[in-house]
Amino acid sequence: FSGPFTDVVTTNLKLRNPSDRKVCFKVKTTAPRRYCVRPNSGIIDPGSSVIVSVMLQPFDYDPNEKSKHKFMVQTTYAPPNISDMEAVWKEAKPDELMDSKLRCVFEMPNENDKLNDIDASKPAPVLNTSKQDGPIPKPHSVSLNDTETRKLVEECKRLQAEVMKLTDENRHLRDEGLRLRKVAHSDKSGSPTALALRDNGSNSLPSLLVVIAAIFIGFFLGKFIL
Question: What sections of the protein cross the membrane (predicted)?
Fold first, then answer.
């Protein structure tokens, strides 16, 4: 029996009948209060075997105390008609009885065995096979990039709308400048009004160039951002 003996310790005995006749068996012990035997008696058919469980009850183990517990397996050939097992044992003659004696041995596990049992009971570490070498991007960083992209797209659309608006205004100013030039050429009298209109037309040309340059710069910036 292997300790620790703080709980029930079970050892199995295998009884085999090598004869060609039925055999009755009975298991006896010198310490019946310390052991529970199942089955403690029975019949074994020819060539068959039976497993007997011997259960040692919990007790305070003393390594200095030698074990004096013994078992005896007693057997006899079964009569042709068996009606009462107790009568078979009472009526059996001494020369018809066979017995095998067993001495109980108690063993406590070594310290190394305890450590091995503890290590075996520990769960194996789980390795994270999905670990990446580089840093894993966080989900919220991805959402920030998407938000910035949407803002840039909206800003580009707004700039394109302003470019189209400025283009229309430039076309309108250009048409207005042509009209003023025609008025200036048609007015040959050299009146102050014609001179004033001519001056306004000439002053509007540099502002038109600045507007056109701003339109093209905004347009190319929008294409570059997209």
Answer: 205-225
